[in-house]
Amino acid sequence: MSLTPPPLALYVHFPWCVRKCPYCDFNSYAVRARGGAHGVEVPEKRYIDALIDDLEAQAPHGGGRPLVSVFLGGGTPSLISPAGIGRVLEAARRAFGFADDIEITMEANPGAIERGRFGEYRAAGVNRVSLGAQSFDAAKLAALGRIHSPEETRRAAEELHAAGLDNFNLDLMYALPRQDVHGAVADIEQALALDPAHLSHYQLTLEPGTVFAAEPPRDLPSDEDAADMLSACKERLTAAGFEQYETSAYARAGRTARHNCNYWTFGDYAGIGAGAHGKLTDARASRVIRTVQTREPRRYMAAPVRSLTKKTVEPRDLPFEFMLNALRLTRGFERTLFESRTGLDWDEVAPIMESLDSRGLVRRDGSRWAATLLGARFLNDLLVEFLPGSAGTRGSRAGRGGGGS
């Protein structure tokens, strides 16, 4: 099989936050508050200059494909001025070109956005916002180390609507300390009252290397209680007209996140900024390349072009990488998508998929495959089957390694 270049997106990382949350394992650093003595100042001009150098160096690897989406993530991109965001977007337009209907998303923290700024960000080119609400319970926000209040989230949503940015997402978390089903559903109700187009709903997890991993918060709900919360919240969102189209994502009709869907369908994306990751298809050499930038912002700004590392994904690893993304989608994927995005024949994974089907973990509808409700619940265990050397891949061509450079 031959590789077909998929749609191309761009991820831009801004690594600064007002305060590092104890559950966060992203590459982020606390900034100095106005007049404060601790933290660092955001070197906006130097960082954006580095981003543009990085962007221009990576553009030739896009193969002439225009960007279908841009995601400005962090950290807290809303700490950067609208003029700075505009500089990055204009450089991206020059380097890659934009699809006519490009989606440009910016993450924003309700406690780190000045009044009136959303209109300026829209003028700079942003047409979608992801707002980190997390909860509408002040005590839960304090337990999560968040710097904003529920009222600041409500005010931010009002300003988004006023700025004409009604295509916005709210991030919510559940299974929080001392939370019960009633509290989790109450967060959903208050989120719905703000009329978002999209809602991301994540379970609080204790990620390695975080403060919470070293010192877990008290009174976390049991796995059974967390499952009950998820079920009740999903039922409420469905009743409100939101479709669950991915493990943690719900959207109104026509409002799915194009950028994230590109990830989940194993599309391509250039990653620029400190610690940013990318994935690019080199169809001529029939290989998939992963890129990684250096994590520390000062090192990144010193050498944004030289610090980028590239690694070819071995063919034996492609089934796992594809399934890690595609099986998150509730509708699953067509087998032809697997073949075109990996360059592998379906026979590489057919025995594994049929075994999972027989165990009730995936389902088949013609040539489309998807995780069942049971499979989605135990998705990590299911994905292990696709790791090289696992029981699922042992003996298949995908599991024995082979070509690639």
Can you lay out the helices and strands and say which pair or pack?
Blueprint: E1 8-14, E2 16-17, E3 29-30, H1 44-58, E4 67-74, H2 82-96, E5 98-108, H3 117-124, E6 128-134, H4 138-143, H5 150-162, E7 168-174, H6 181-192, E8 198-203, H7 211-214, H8 223-239, E9 243-246, E10 249-251, H9 258-264, E11 268-272, E12 277-282, E13 287-292, H10 297-302, E14 309-312, H11 318-326, E15 333-334, H12 335-342, H13 350-358, E16 362-365, E17 368-371, H14 373-377, H15 379-383
Parallel strand pairs: 1-4, 1-11, 2-3, 4-5, 5-6, 6-7, 7-8
Antiparallel strand pairs: 8-10, 9-10, 12-13, 13-14, 15-17, 16-17
Helix pairs in contact: 1-2, 2-3, 6-8
Low-confidence spans: pLDDT under 50, at least 5 residues?
A: 394-405
Strand order of the largest sheet: 9-10-8-7-6-5-4-1-11
Shape: globular
CATH topology label of the largest domain:
TIM Barrel
The helix/strand class is: alpha/beta
**Quaternary structure classification:** single chain
Share in β-strands: 15-25%
Largest sheet: 9 strands, mixed
Helix amount: 25-40%
CATH class of the largest domain: Alpha Beta
Radius of gyration: 21 Å
Give the name of the CATH architecture of the largest domain. Answer: Alpha-Beta Barrel
pLDDT averaged residue by residue: 92
